[in-house]
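RECORD TYPE: inverse folding
INPUT: structure tokens
STRUCTURE:
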């Protein structure tokens, strides 16, 4: 398994052999995060996580 990707990519899980998307949760305050193009943003604490960090 590829473990290089972290952060937002943890919000995917395997279910019945398919990749399904879970609701992203802010690692800082634990509330749900809003999804924008290419990033996740927490409206509560302002935490932002970019999906692609090459
Ligand atoms: Zn937050």
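DESIGNED SEQUENCE:
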């Amino acid at each position: 398994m590829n473990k290089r990707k972290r952060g937002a990519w943890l919000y995917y899980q395997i279910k019945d052999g398919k990749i399904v998307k879970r609701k992203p949760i802010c690692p800082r305050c634990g509330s749900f995060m809003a999804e924008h193009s290419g990033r996740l943003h927490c409206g509560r604490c302002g935490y932002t996580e970019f999906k692609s960090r090459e």
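NOTES: Residues 26, 28-29, 31, 42, 44-45, 47 surround zinc ion (CB under 6 Å).
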